Amino acid sequence: MNGIQRISPLRLALAWVLGLTLLRLAGLAMTGLELHGDEAQYWSWAQKLDFGYFTKPPLIAWAIAATTAVCGDGEACVRASSPLLHAATAMALYGLGTTLRDARAGMWAAVLWITLPSVAFSSLIVSTDVPLLACWALAALALRRTLDTRLDPRRSWTWAAVAGAAIGLGLLAKYAMAYAAIGLAVHLALNRDDRWILRDPRGLLILALAVAILAPNLAWNAQHDFATVGHLGDNANLKGRLFNPSHAVEFLGQQFGVFGPIPFLVLGWRAAAWARGRATPAERYLLALALPPLAVVTVQAFLSRANANWAVTAYPTAAVLVALWLTDPGRARAWRLWTVGPHLAAGLGFLFVVASWPAITPPHASRALARLSGWEAMARQVRPILDRNLTLPVLTSDRMTMAALLYYLRGRLTEGAPVPGDTRMPVWIFDWNQRPENHYELLDAYDGSQGDELIFLADWDDPRPILERFERVEQIATLSVTSFGRSKRLTVWRIAGYRGPIQLGG
Question: In this model, does residue 233 exceed pLDDT 70?
């Protein structure tokens, strides 16, 4: 016991973080789960690096390009950035907890983060939330250090530069990083001692760096009719019935699963203490960053709908808040056990299921994970058809089919027009309403100029609206794959003689 007590909090934090990260990387290498359509789409973006994409800023594509450049295009390498970035998030929270109290609080912040069930889940997929959270945690640390080192210009300029870079990169991960500006505004409105940053060149440096990093993405959006910004409005879905209390209750209930029951209750309790003027300065800073995204998305859920992950930026600083509570003097050790223990057990259980898939397939897990299987088998059925039609471009009916086949037939197909010397056949998408709704429809929509005769892969139950736009139509196959009770079906056609787009509204 004395030996354990002599281990520094930093080493304990590193042991937890590195141990679980290595286990998750091993689980990714062992799993038989295929890429989800969204993951396959992000991979395809990484094949054509840019400063923006239709639904998201570019950082997710850059992260995938970095990991696949090191270890190849297998599913594990496509997803490898997620456990690595969560490890970086945990260590940034260690730094924030240490700054606000001591290394012991920092260690528990890192441990709490790396054991959260939602972190265990998102470590095993590739998503835009993961780089966003890493940038958010680093920005929260760097902002706090900047504010605390006002009288040490050399250090505060360095931390100001880190804060500006973290905010800018966070905006390139997901525009939800803008909640940080709201949180900082709330903090400064309520804490006079930190308002010096508004009059200081170091505050201007933070803003200038963030804007400079975001600027290429803004330029990309301007060139593409602000497609990503418009997509945010579509997600908000503020149409139809605008008062849905049950949606708000459901969203808040989901947050107990995202952050864990005890941590979410502690967050609510300390928020109530803040409202009564009983929070410490450290808690006020953490809550100012945590509560705005949670409040805004709860209102969004009340007005329309909200996904459980839309408020994830609440939880990096909330994890530090809970760590401060867990390490309060006199706090019983059992609270730490009952907070972290169930999370760790749930995360390890999920990792075991993923790593052993499909050798071990628990019934409920099989139904939930079934959509992460089947496309590789479908690609094996599509390949011989393409091999018999080597000169024909491919037309697809929808985004998910196009993304999955681009990935699982990556040696045979390429998105849009191939570069000179590339022998793969191009894949296009049919934009049925001439209104881009995804990145492929924005940049790879078929308009007749890409080839008169094509192989058409249709995921629609009734593809006649598309088929009617061609003079010659021949069905050559019906393909079907059933995996764990879920079926995927494609009809394959040889089509020619494009008549023009579907006529809408008449």
Answer: no
